[in-house]
């Protein structure tokens, strides 16, 4: 039975996983970005998706083998495009910090990923606007976008307050470069939603094969993430060749900005375990996303906004816990509190609208 309010809870759990995945990477020592990114990515895009799909669905290989070639192409293609957003997301966080980088990138992702699919399919005008539940869902989406904008303003106020580098807790950032990367990442990351939408025939075949409807989206993730893996693998391979960092996989020291080896060898076991943890945590965002989407009813596309809002909520809380907002000024902190309240409220509003549309309330 469909229960959108439970779906919201699943999206919150997925948001927590996504907002937390980068934290283990902070503990990686003497590895270049491209080394730990592709190492964790193997778990994010290959190992975890196929493992959990095999464990939680019936006849995975039969379902995927019989899926239309057109479905395979669009799922993988949109995953490939999403990969450009996914790999630059890490750079956005690096340049802007967890709070601001996540807010800008995911704000754009939420807008494009939520609204484009129903507009293209015609559902926006034929179903969403004319119904009470649909209007509430749309209102919740707009509220979420407003909340994202407020948190973005809070992040900008924080950066201005810390710009002189003397405020407690301030760190070296690159705001201009970070904003360019975050905008690009946000737009391209919306393609993931398009890939999930293109996988509807696979979901239907999965349920027909006897899989619990709660797990119907897992095989689609396998295909979409293959495309994302291709993008990330090519970029990381280029960086590894350019930076001569391949030796780091077996313990060679990283190369610093001057081309000299850093002191000491990397702690291999620690780095591999932390990268595996971070990569698996990243995958869990979509593991729970597909569960949440299965509970949202006729307006499943609204799951994308709930997911993005949840990520920003928990990423902001991580930013606070990691003292990114220490010394940011009263205006930034006030905007942050308002933005968080708006985002939390938006997820409830969207869940309520879906519950009305599905007859759950």
UniProtKB/TrEMBL annotation:
Coiled coil: none annotated. The gene is rhaT. This is L-rhamnose/proton symporter RhaT. Keywords: Cell inner membrane, Cell membrane, Membrane, Sugar transport, Symport, Transmembrane, Transmembrane helix, Transport. The chain crosses the membrane at residues 6-23, 35-55, 71-89, 96-116, 136-157, 178-197, 217-241, 272-292, 304-322, 334-355. Pfam families: RhaT. It comes from the Bacteria. The keyword Phosphoprotein does not apply. The keyword Cell inner membrane applies.
